[in-house]
């Protein structure tokens, strides 16, 4: 005997996709914060993408069992906003750097 009950119920408050939902929300928050830091803001891009993917999967799994989808939705929303903000920041950085280099080159 292994000492474990094969018919044990899941922990109270847990449901399929909850871990992914929590991870999506946390990564979305991290991406949002990192996206505003100059020099390392680009690191928010992969966090936002992973938050978006995990949020979509977590939301789908939670809906299948009728569980709450709030954290997954928050992860998806934060992922989308972080993705947009980080992408915009990278584009602005490239445009500004190009303008500065063009101006310096005309001396």
Folded structure, characterized:
It is a single chain. This protein has helices at 18-34, 44-65, 70-105. With 107 residues, the chain is an all-alpha fold. The chain has one domain (18-105). Helix 1 runs antiparallel to helix 2, helix 1 packs parallel to helix 3 (70-105) and helix 2 packs antiparallel against helix 3. The longest helix has 36 residues, at 70-105. The chain starts with 17 loop residues before the first helix and ends with a helix.
The gist of it:
With 107 residues, this protein is mainly α.
Number of domains: 1
- Following the backbone from N to C, one meets helices and strands in this order, namely HHH
**Tally of DSSP helical segments:** 3
Distance between the termini: 82 Å
- Return residue spans where pLDDT drops below 50 for at least 5 consecutive residues: none
> Quick one: biggest sheet?
none
Query: What is the percent of helical residues?
Result: over 70%
How many strand segments? Answer: 0
What is Rg? 20 Å
Percentage of β-strand residues: under 5%
Q: Report the principal-axis shape.
A: rod-shaped
The structural class is mainly alpha
What's the pLDDT, averaged over the residues? Answer: 84
What secondary-structure arrangement, pairings included, does this model have?
Blueprint: H1 18-34, H2 44-65, H3 70-105
Helix pairs in contact: 1-2, 1-3, 2-3
Features:
107 residues, mainly alpha, 3 helices, rod-shaped
């Amino acid at each position: 005997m292994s000492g474990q009950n094969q018919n044990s119920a899941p922990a109270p408050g847990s449901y399929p996709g909850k871990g992914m939902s929590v991870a999506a929300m946390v990564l979305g928050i991290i991406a949002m914060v990192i996206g505003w830091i100059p020099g390392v803001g680009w690191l928010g891009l992969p966090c936002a993408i992973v938050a978006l993917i995990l949020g979509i999967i977590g939301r789908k799994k939670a809906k299948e069992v009728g569980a709450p989808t709030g954290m997954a939705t928050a992860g998806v929303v934060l992922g989308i906003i972080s993705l947009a903000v980080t992408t915009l920041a990278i584009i602005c950085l490239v445009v500004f750097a190009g303008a500065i280099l063009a101006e310096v080159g005309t001396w």
